[in-house]
Design a protein that fits this description.
Layout: H1 2-11, H2 32-39, H3 43-50, H4 54-61, H5 69-79, H6 93-96
Amino acid sequence: MMGEVAQCIREGNTTMPRARVRRPVKVPRFPLARVLASRGVSLAELARRTRITRTQLSTYLNGRTVPTWPQVWQIAQALGADLGEFSKAPVEEESANVG
């Protein structure tokens, strides 16, 4: 961007180049809420068990960030869950009743 500004000044242009807009990156949602609900564990309790801050767990829960694989493993162990539970897509009622 600075190079473009310098070039405009050298060429005598009075209009500035438009800033590039960064598009937000879509982060795949980590299914933590579903697993927590099935285990009846609160976010505070999971934070205590895993030693991952409640704030960080909340970012996973809200889909703002995705945990690393070691953190997924740590969360799964703390909940007594299988790693496969974190990769399963939720079953919708309509598709479950088909047939």
